[in-house]
Amino acid sequence: MPAKKPKLGQNFLVDESACHRIADALGDITTRTVVEIGPGHGAITSILATRAAHLHCIEFDPSLAKELTFKFRDNPRVTIHHADILQTDLAPLTSSGPWALDPGPAHSLDIIGNLPYYITSDILLHLYTAARANILHRAVLMMQREVADRIAAHPGVSDYGALSAFTQLHARVENLFTLPPSAFSPQPDVYSTVIRLDFAPRFAELHVDPEGFNRFLRAGFAQKRKTLANNLRAAGFSAAQLQSAWPRDLPAQIRAEAVPLELMAELYGSLGS
Prior knowledge:
The chain is α/β, with parallel strands linked by helices. The chain has helices at 16-24, 45-48, 62-71, 120-132, 145-152, 162-170, 203-206, 210-220, 228-234, 239-245, 261-270, and strands at 12-13, 33-37, 54-59, 78-82, 109-114, 136-144, 171-179, 184-185, 192-199. It has 2 domains: 12-201, 3-Layer(aba) Sandwich (Rossmann fold), CATH 3.40.50; 205-270, Orthogonal Bundle (Helicase, Ruva Protein, domain 3), CATH 1.10.8. The longest helix has 13 residues, at 120-132.
C-alpha cells in the first residue's frame, strides 16, 4: 500500500544513514544552540538531541509539534515550538535559558532543516535577514536539487540568478550530497540536495549598505531576459546616470546573471544609491 500523503505535503526523510550525514555536517555542536526547521517525526532531531547544548525545533504542523513535545518531554535540552519559521524571530533563541553557554556577541545559532519545496526561497531570505544581524553561524539545509544548483552557481552560468547572488552575499556555499526520492516517505518527484552555508556577510567588504544593496540587486535581476541596464532603468535610474556610473570593464548589454557581486557593488556605489 502506498504511503499516505501528509496533509501539508511533507516528504519525511527515512534514510537513517542520510540523517546521520546531515547531522554530522553541522560539525561539533556540543556547545552550540541549534535550530531545526521542520523536524517532522524527529528522525534528525533524535540525533541532534544527544549532541547539541540546546535544540529548538520549529514545527508548523500542530499534530507533529504535539508528537515531538511528547517524544522529547524528558529532555530539557530540547524545546519544541509550534510555529511558522517565517514568523519566528530567531534572535531570542541565541541567549534564552540556561543552555546559552556564551550569551555574548560571539554566540550564534546553527540551523538545520529539510526545507519545504514551495517556500524554500522565503525561508532562505528569512535566514539571510538573521545573518545580517550576526546571529547565525552555519546552516545545513536540504532542498530540491535544482534550487541548490542555482544557489551554488557562479556568475556567467545560466543557473545564476537573484537567489544565487543573495546567498553568496551572505554566506559561503558548499553542495554536500544529493539524495534520491527513495530516501523519503512518501517519495517526492524530485531529487534533494544538502548544502552547507557558512554565514559571512560581505557588505562591509564590498562597501555597501545591506538594505540599499539588496534593493539594488532585486532591481537588477527583476526580469531575467532584460539587460542589467534595462532593469535598472525600469527601477528609476536614468540612461545618463547609468552611463556616467557604468564600470569600464562591464559590457553595456550584459545581463545581471553574468555580473560578479564585486562589479555590482562598484556600480551601486558609483550610482550613489
